[in-house]
Automatic annotation (TrEMBL), chain A:
GO terms for biological process: animal organ development; central nervous system development. Acts as a component of the translation initiation factor 2B (eIF2B) complex, which catalyzes the exchange of GDP for GTP on eukaryotic initiation factor 2 (eIF2) gamma subunit. Its guanine nucleotide exchange factor activity is repressed when bound to eIF2 complex phosphorylated on the alpha subunit, thereby limiting the amount of methionyl-initiator methionine tRNA available to the ribosome and consequently global translation is repressed. PANTHER family: TRANSLATION INITIATION FACTOR EIF-2B, TRANSLATION INITIATION FACTOR EIF-2B SUBUNIT DELTA. The gene is LOC109075063. Residues 39-55, 90-119 have a biased composition (Basic and acidic residues). It comes from Cyprinus carpio (Common carp). InterPro entries: IF-2B-related (IPR000649). This is Translation initiation factor eIF2B subunit delta. Component of the translation initiation factor 2B (eIF2B) complex which is a heterodecamer of two sets of five different subunits: alpha, beta, gamma, delta and epsilon. Subunits alpha, beta and delta comprise a regulatory subcomplex and subunits epsilon and gamma comprise a catalytic subcomplex. Within the complex, the hexameric regulatory complex resides at the center, with the two heterodimeric catalytic subcomplexes bound on opposite sides.
TrEMBL record, chain B:
It is found in: Cytoplasm, Cytosol. One of its GO terms (molecular function) is guanyl-nucleotide exchange factor activity. This is Translation initiation factor eIF2B subunit beta. Transmembrane segments: none annotated. It comes from Cyprinus carpio. It comes from the Eukaryota. GO terms for cellular component: cytosol; eukaryotic translation initiation factor 2B complex. The gene is LOC109080935. It holds the Pfam family IF-2B. Acts as a component of the translation initiation factor 2B (eIF2B) complex, which catalyzes the exchange of GDP for GTP on eukaryotic initiation factor 2 (eIF2) gamma subunit. Its guanine nucleotide exchange factor activity is repressed when bound to eIF2 complex phosphorylated on the alpha subunit, thereby limiting the amount of methionyl-initiator methionine tRNA available to the ribosome and consequently global translation is repressed. Coiled coil: none annotated. Component of the translation initiation factor 2B (eIF2B) complex which is a heterodecamer of two sets of five different subunits: alpha, beta, gamma, delta and epsilon. Subunits alpha, beta and delta comprise a regulatory subcomplex and subunits epsilon and gamma comprise a catalytic subcomplex. Within the complex, the hexameric regulatory complex resides at the center, with the two heterodimeric catalytic subcomplexes bound on opposite sides. GO terms for biological process: animal organ development; central nervous system development. Keywords: Cytoplasm, Initiation factor, Protein biosynthesis. InterPro entries: eIF2B_beta_subunit, IF-2B-related, IF_2B-like_C, NagB/RpiA_transferase-like.
Length: 536, 352
């Protein structure tokens, strides 16, 4: 397509001096639409069928689409967006500048396509603001990390990762070699989960990258390694680390000539995001943060100077972290402390930064309670929570999750953290949370989930199979009594180890969700999402 | 004197058995299965019957009760010991009644009328001496031993009635009965097994490797993932340590969570338990949940001194969560357990 358009530009360039510029623009636009339609028709039918199968229920507030009918919409919008600056500088345009402009337009379209793939929704400012009453069918592109069993999807991902080495550079430069690495799966995967990746911690993705890395910023490489090795874990920690890394990237960024910061920076971020999702699939909170950043970048006015733009972006990121994470946790603590009374026995699971914060605050406010920390193999995150609470001086008890029925008769409340809250009211959290909610319900113990609103996501899910994460299966191997039974599990052909990371808790097990907007029932999550979207 | 030798020999054996019982409780899990313990107990009781000095059935029962109390005190959680003692006591009563010539039915059922009129004079009935009583009792104990040896096979024979092909079966920890059950079914049917390793001792790993040897597709999951995968499971088949008198279970910890998850998804919960595990205890006796293992298996860090840690070994599962019991005499609903128990043990023997 690039070759054809290049040829076209030569033809057009000759005629430019003679013909009317406006008609020229329209002709160009028509030709481009033609090309797009031709390409779409080749890929269209098989893709459309796949997408129709996976089409979700139309969400009234989201007009995000992948259907070809709406494909035309971005094209004229982009063209119109770029038309105004072009019209102003019309007389001074030369052949090369037009070519560069057209390339920039194509790149931004490709970036917006990728942006749809990452975020799952389109909320970029390039589209006109959609009214909540538009009931267009929502066909969301399925994220790559749940299509491992589809060879077509894998091939597309590999091609996308290859393309990304070029997309940020422009075709005039010829950088060879370094592309975003594609990680390979490890070990035998349980058949129910063959659609998910299963990586080994012993093969980090950074092994496949040569040094020096030209495409990926070093702080992103470090971040990816920290994710894949589990050094940074936990939803809030990962989001904050991501935002700090992006601040570093923006700091080191310099706009190449003839490029606009608002478009080029977004393109630069795409290979980073692909790399990070290869290291470890993005969490819902990270996805929301990335959407926010991309929106802010696209909103930078084009006449803004580079230093000014960078300053604005750094401030945006800082305020995001401050508002959505730090202040939110203060607000949630305030609400939650009302729910803790003297003499309470509170059960917590694993290590949730928010729940630990709430308990420490409550202890400082002189509430008398004791805590039971429930932990589970193989991550054993409860030990970290135990350490933090004991350091504060809170009285703690420690059990494993299999002792839950033994310890629950003593418990008066259960506080759980969440990784994400889904639009149908299900709580996605560390594996084992649904079990705790189930047994607590059986013993009539109230279950309170604490979650910031930036973790709310549009997805819906009813079981823990379709979209999950498989951790390193070797973590399950343990030595007891001097014997390690699973040592050679790879050699035994009918044995599989399953190390799930997340599970979903149905809303009927959860009594209350405490968010920074207040205390809501689990089923009010889509209301909060709608309110947030209208605000934005 | 030959009599004294026999007695010392007998008391030596009893002492060694008691010390074995005490020791096997302190290891991680039982060093021997319940079936072995039951067999050894029964063999020891046969020896006591043969070698101890007794004149009539009442004296024999007293001796056995005394030894039985010592054995159960050595390892209270090993209930098969107590169960076998009660079986043998019941055998003695039956043989005595048969020797006397009265029918078994009337002796067994304590009708309200009998209780009011007789006023608890049944103890005197055991003072009569019968020459062939010893031989009869020993023969009956031998029958009991053969029954014990065949329990696992009897249970496995029923496997094909309960497992169809392409099923997903979930189990927890390690149970020899369930292992034999699944292996027997695997000879004819293809199915998947999901084993929940049972932290902290992770007996599930051993179970999984043993099942894989028979080419059964096995997956090991951590305990935390039980509810997450339960929606794809067709049946839950577990073993147990004890079956209680109300139809509930005392099983390895984590079983209650498994049972609740199965109930939530309406998945049938099948318990494979041989009859010698049936115990006349009820749930609120001590040692219901406890027998806490030393907690250093779950927590190695230095703050152990500042926290309480609990590591229970057993869980109580109420009978409402159980669908079926499969034992060597067939399949039964939990509501029928009390009836089976009344056939195995005499009500007066419930308290040793």
């Amino acid at each position: 397509m690039m070759l054809i358009s290049a040829a076209m530009t030569l033809v057009v360039g000759h005629e430019l001096q003679s013909a009317e510029p406006k008609e020229e623009k329209q002709r160009l636009r028509k030709e481009k639409k033609q090309h797009k339609k031709n390409k779409k028709d080749d890929r269209g039918p098989p893709e459309k069928e796949k997408e129709k199968e996976k089409a979700s229920v139309p969400a009234p507030s989201k007009p995000a689409t992948q259907s070809p009918a709406h494909k035309a919409a971005p094209v004229p919008v982009n063209a119109s967006a770029s038309e105004s600056p072009v019209a102003a500088e019309k007389p001074a345009k030369s052949k090369a500048e037009l070519r560069a402009e057209r390339r920039a337009r194509q790149d931004s379209e490709r970036a917006s396509k990728q942006g749809k793939k990452e975020g799952g929704q389109q909320s970029t400012s390039s589209k006109p603001k959609a009214t909540p009453n538009e009931l267009q069918p929502v066909v969301k592109r399925l994220p790559d990390h749940v299509q491992v069993d589809d060879p077509v999807a894998l091939k597309k991902l590999a091609k996308k990762l290859e393309r990304q080495q070029k997309s940020g550079q422009g075709c005039s430069l010829n950088i060879t070699g370094v592309k975003v690495p594609l990680r390979s799966d490890y070990g035998y995967k349980v058949s129910l989960f063959s659609h998910l990746h299963q990586y080994s911690r012993k093969n980090p993705p950074t092994q496949q990258i040569s040094i020096p890395v030209t495409v990926i910023h070093p702080s992103i490489v470090r971040l990816g390694l920290q994710y894949s090795q589990g050094i940074i874990a936990g939803s809030n920690a990962r989001s904050v680390a991501l935002l700090h890394a992006f601040k570093q990237v923006i700091q080191d960024y310099s706009t190449p000539p003839n490029e606009e910061l608002s478009r080029d920076l977004v393109n630069k971020l795409s290979p980073y995001i692909s790399f990070l999702s290869q290291c470890r699939p993005l969490s819902a909170s990270m996805g929301n943060a990335i959407k926010y950043i991309k929106k802010e970048i696209s909103n930078i006015p084009s006449q803004c100077k580079e230093e000014e733009a960078k300053r604005i972006l750094q401030e945006c990121i800082d305020s995001y972290i401050n508002e959505k994470i730090i202040l939110a946790s203060e607000a949630i603590s305030k609400y939650a402390i009302e729910k803790i009374s003297d003499g309470d026995v509170i059960l917590v699971y694993g290590c949730s930064s928010l729940v630990n914060h709430i308990l420490c605050e409550a202890f400082e406010k002189q509430r008398k309670f004791r805590v039971i920390v429930v932990d589970s193999r193989p991550r054993l995150e409860g030990r970290e929570a135990l350490r933090r609470l004991v350091k504060k001086g809170i009285r703690c008890t420690y059990v494993l999750i299999s002792a839950l029925s033994y310890i629950l008769p003593e418990v008066s409340k259960v506080f759980l953290g969440a990784h994400a809250l889904l639009a149908n009211g299900y709580v996605m959290s560390r594996v084992g949370t649904s079990q705790i909610a189930l047994v607590a319900k059986a013993y009539n113990v109230p279950v309170l989930v604490c979650c910031e609103t930036y973790k709310f996501c549009e997805r819906v899910q009813t079981d823990s199979f379709v979209s999950n994460e498989l951790d390193d299966p070797d973590d399950l191997i343990v030595t007891r009594n001097g014997k390690t039974h699973l040592e050679n599990w790879q050699t035994v052909k009918s044995l599989g180890l399953l190390n799930l990371v997340y599970d979903v808790t149905p809303p009927d097990f959860v009594d209350l969700v405490i968010t920074d907007l207040g205390m809501i029932p689990c089923t009010s999550v889509p209301v909060v999402l709608r309110v947030k979207n209208v605000d934005q | 004197m030959p009599g004294a030798d026999k007695e010392t020999d007998l008391s030596e054996r009893i002492e060694s058995f008691l010390s074995e019982l005490k020791r096997c409780g302190s290891g991680a899990g039982s060093l021997r299965g319940s079936a072995e313990t039951a067999r050894e107990t029964t063999a020891l009781l046969r020896r006591i019957t043969a070698q101890a000095r007794w004149g009539n059935a009442g004296e024999l029962m007293e001796i056995i009760r005394k030894e039985g109390r010592r054995m159960t005190a050595a390892q209270p959680s090993e209930t098969t010991v107590g169960n076998m003692i009660r079986r043998v006591l019941k055998i003695i009563r039956e043989e005595y009644a048969r020797s006397r010539g009265s029918s078994e039915e009337t002796d067994q059922q304590e009708s309200l009328h009998k209780l009011l009129t007789s006023g608890g004079s049944s103890e005197d009935n055991f003072r009569q001496h019968f020459t062939h009583l010893k031989a009869n009792v020993i023969e009956a104990i031998n029958e009991l031993l053969t029954e014990l040896e065949g329990t696992t096979d009897n249970i496995s024979m029923q496997a094909l009635e309960h497992i169809h092909s392409n099923e997903v079966i979930m189990t927890i920890g390690r149970s020899r009965t369930v292992e034999a059950f699944l292996k027997d079914a695997a000879r004819k049917r293809k199915f998947h097994v999901i084993v929940a390793e049972c932290a902290p001792f992770c007996q599930g790993h051993e179970m999984a490797t043993s099942l894989c040897k028979e080419d059964i597709e096995t997956t090991v999951i951590p305990d935390a993932a039980i509810f997450a995968v339960m929606s794809r499971v067709n049946k839950v088949i577990i073993g147990t340590q004890t079956v209680l008198a109300n139809g509930g279970l005392r099983a390895v910890n984590g079983t209650h969570t498994l049972a609740l998850a199965a109930k939530h998804h309406s998945t049938p919960l099948i318990v494979c338990a041989p009859m010698f595990k049936l115990s006349p205890q009820v749930p609120d006796t001590p040692y219901n949940h406890t027998k806490l293992k030393s907690v250093d298996t779950i927590l190695y860090i230095h703050i152990l001194s500042k926290v309480n840690a609990h590591c229970p070994v057993f869980d109580y599962v109420p009978p409402e969560l159980i669908t079926l019991f499969i034992s060597n005499i067939g399949g039964n609903a939990p509501s029928y357990i009390y009836r089976l128990m009344s056939e195995l043990y005499h009500p007066e023997d419930h308290e040793l």
